[in-house]
Each structure stands twice: as structure tokens, then as C-alpha cells.
Amino acid sequence: MDLATPTTARPPHIAQDEWALRQQLADCYHLVDFFGWTETIFNHISARLPGTDHYLVNPFGLNYDEVTPENLIKVDVDGRKVEPSPWDGNPAGFALHGAIHAAREDIHCVIHTHTTAVSAIALKRAGFGHDDFYGAQLTGRVAYHAFEGITLFADEKPRMLASLGQDKHVLVLRNHGIAVGEIDIPRTFFLLWTVQRAAEIQLAAGAIPGDNVALPHAISQRCADLTQQLIRGDDFADKFFAAMVRQMRSRRGAPR
Predict the structure, then answer these.
(1) In 119-156, which positions are buried (b, 16+ CB within 10 angstroms) versus exposed (e)?
(2) Which residues form the Class II aldolase/adducin N-terminal domain (predicted)?
(3) What's the pLDDT score for residue 254?
(4) What is the pLDDT of residue 92?
């Protein structure tokens, strides 16, 4: 079977709700690839299975466009496979994703990237600004964690969680990249898109001579609050996610 072409039928051993989550998570991997935000076979996107301590994540060694609903692996918060699979996960992802899924009930999906724009902002002491349209939407939502090397070791988990806190949804991994998390896959992908746009605009503005027009904190906070009101709606993020999937499939010539 072509790894990039999932079967249309749900395997009998997978429940309907889990299959729907697997399909959506595979679409999310393909979108990150479509937008050029991948790091070859590295980085990870995870989705918690509701009502469990298990989450789905990509098989290590596959490109994002090779991820399918079938080949996603199921692991516990310590990264141990809970179902047989010929694939293993990326150990560098387990400490980050497992820690967040175990500690934050309001985060059911976590996406980790280090695109050029995001990594450049993570390198800067000031981090993300909040003066442009997208950066303003992140006001009060960004936390920072000091770089400790490749995220492999369990002893870093409590420090990452302390950095993230209980109310932030963007964790800037200093000198590295970001992790974003939300209640579901569409909302997490929308947050990732917002963070990526904020990083790109901040880099572009920084390359132009002259001062930026600073926004009062009250204005940027209002922008962030209004964005959250939209995102908390029933279908705002779902519509955005579905539209991006349609665009991806149309441009790649895949059936809708």
C-alpha cells in the first residue's frame, strides 16, 4: 500500500471516534507538510484520545505526507506503545508531548515545529512582539522555556510544565522552536498558523529600517480576547481547518 494513500474503510479493531480522530490528525500532518513547516522526518503532532491517557503520534522515519490514519501509533504519556505497530515514535517528542498531555486537560492536541521564522524568534531575547495583527492575537498566551538540549529526558518535564503554566497555549522553546496546544486539532492548527504568521511578519518588519508602530497593551489584549471568543465558537476553527484541507487536496489533485 502507498503510505500516502490511506484506505477508505475503517479497520474493524478501531472505534469510529478514534478513526475520525486519526483521519483528522493525518490531515493535520499533511497540512503542515503542504505549508512547508516540516523539518524532514523530525518534529511531531500529537492528539489525545478522549477519556484516556493515550495519544496518537507519527511513526518516526516517515515524512509527514506519508502519515496515514492507519500508521499513526498509539502511546501512553511515557511514550510506550499501547498497541502493536511495526513503527516506533521519536523519543525526542515523548518528554514534551507526554508532559503536556498528562498535565493539561484543556490541551488535547500539541504541535511542535521549528520553522526558520519561528526559530529565529525563539533565538531573540525579546521573543514574540504583539504589535502586528497576528502577534497581537498572542497577547497573554505565550510562555518561554530555557533551552536544555534535545528534549529527551524525563527530568525536564516539570520545568517545561512550570514554564508553560496553566493558562498559556504557546510554549517558546528558547534557541529551538515552539509547541502549541489547544482543545482539539482544528484549534491547534489555527493557533500554529497564527504563530507562524506572527513570526514571519516580525522578521519582515525587523528587516525594514525605522521604528514599528507600537500597540497599547489594552488594544493587543482586546485583539487576543476577541480572537478567543471566535475560537471558542462551535465551528470557526473547524471551518478554517476544513478550508485548508480542501485547498491542499485541490492543489495536490487529491479527491475531496
Answers:
(1) bebbeeeeebbbbbebbbbbbebbbbbeebeebeeeeb
(2) 23-203
(3) 60
(4) 76
